[in-house]
Amino acid sequence: MQNSKEESINMQLIASQSPYKENSEVIASAVNNTEVVLSPTANTEDYDPHKHRNRPNPTSNAETLIHLLKGSLGTGILAMPNAFCNSGFLVGVIATIIIGVLCTYCLHILVKAQYKLCKRLRVPILSYPHSMKYALELGPRCVSWFAPYAPGLVDGFMVIYQLGICCVYIVFVATNIKQVADQYGDSLDVSTHMLILLLPLILINYIRNLKLLAPFSTLANLITFVGLAMTLVYMFEELPPISEREMFGTLRNFSLYFGTTLFALEAVGVIIALENNMKTPQYFGGYCGVLNIGMTVIVILYIAMGFFGYIKYGSNAKGSVTFNLPQEEVMAQSIKIMFAIAIFITYALQAYVPVEILWNTYLEQRIRNRKLFWEYVCRTVVTLATFVLAIAIPRLGLFISLFGALCLSALGIAFPAIIEICVLWPDNDFGPLKFMMIKNILLIIFGLVGLVVGTYVSIVDIVNSFK
């Protein structure tokens, strides 16, 4: 049996590799060819993965909660009035609670499944992609054949989603700055404002660890909460009667609501990265853990913003509620600048995930010399890619709905359910009447339907918007 000193693990935040041999099967690591040999009858109860983590810059519970709030309180919350416009205010309130509970539950089952896999493999940490791979290898034969391809699939969805968030952030910051600049100076195209932002975005993306980002996240959180409070002041002014708004939206538009709300609430890439980097990860889950506290605050804020924003602006609610604020008032312009600063800071946190995936998983082991230089090149290329996409498709509301439906239906709902089924498969531990199996199958179906329908409707609307 290997002890903690004998484990050969490439300790990375996002792309940890876990070479091991289990049940006479050798599973090769993409980075490290050293094998950890395990007995098929090994007792996993005496191994606690949390005690064997050795993070270079671990975050405290408070810092993790701050990052969690900042990672979820981005442009998504400002798009909630537009989302409620698509769903109706009654459906919006109920569905947001349901989606919030669903997202939180799926994150819980993902973290628990990863912990069980780590105990089984006797490794301290597993990334999301490799959790998917090793879980499929334990699952039924009809899915185990796909295990070698699973990391690439998960990484692909994760990178696309995080790059999509970064594109949305660039459009958001540039558009808010443009509205303020147009009021007090010469009118410039939004693309010009994006170009002005390019160098600052590259520089903030050069911050290489979450510990250094914590003070910036604290500042961004403070700015965001103040900005949200000031925005609510505008919303509460001369609120029209609730009877003037629709309680129910159309079924077609509900798919746009679903994509927008899922984009807003689900931050699976950042959350898994945060849990992996915690000093005390055992306090991440639980009824009063970091995840539940953070998600409760987030859902309440999202419902308040969506409900009152829709009551205030109705069908005129735009992709970001800041675009509905009065152009001529100084307070409104201050709100736009505050949110632009907060989202600019958050860009670094969101870009952290695709950079770590691309660099740690696919590039670092192939580069022998000047690794630090090439890592900065990677960070620069990621920023340039999001900049080009933002220039090409500056449709904020539809962008949000598209990436929410396309990526998060899979990453946040379907994949965690698949992983849990496969982890429970060897012991047939699905409970009475196979409850866990049935529940996870329903989650998979729900996620796939949301992916297909939401993506289709968003793409159709994006194409139509260019006509």
Architecture blueprint of SSEs:
Elements: E1 20-22, E2 25-27, H1 61-72, H2 75-78, H3 80-87, H4 89-121, H5 128-138, H6 141-144, H7 150-184, H8 190-204, H9 210-236, H10 251-265, H11 268-276, H12 290-313, H13 330-363, H14 371-392, H15 396-424, H16 435-466
Antiparallel strand pairs: 1-2
Helix pairs in contact: 1-9, 1-11, 1-12, 3-4, 3-10, 3-12, 4-10, 4-12, 4-15, 5-7, 5-15, 7-8, 7-13, 7-14, 7-15, 8-14, 9-12, 9-13, 10-15, 10-16, 13-14, 15-16
Subcellular location: Membrane
Pfam families: Aa_trans
Keywords: Membrane, Transmembrane, Transmembrane helix
Architecture overview:
The structure is a single chain. The protein has one domain (about 55-465): Up-down Bundle (Amino acid/polyamine transporter I). The chain has helices at about 60-70, 75-80, 80-85, 90-120, 130-140, 140-145, 150-185, 190-205, 210-235, 250-265, 270-275, 290-315, 330-365, 370-390, 395-425, 435-465, and strands spanning about 20, 25. The model is unreliable at about 1-40 (pLDDT under 50). The protein is built from 16 helices and 2 strands. The protein is mainly α and about 475 residues long. Strands 1-2 form a two-stranded antiparallel ribbon. The chain is about 65% helix and about 0% strand.
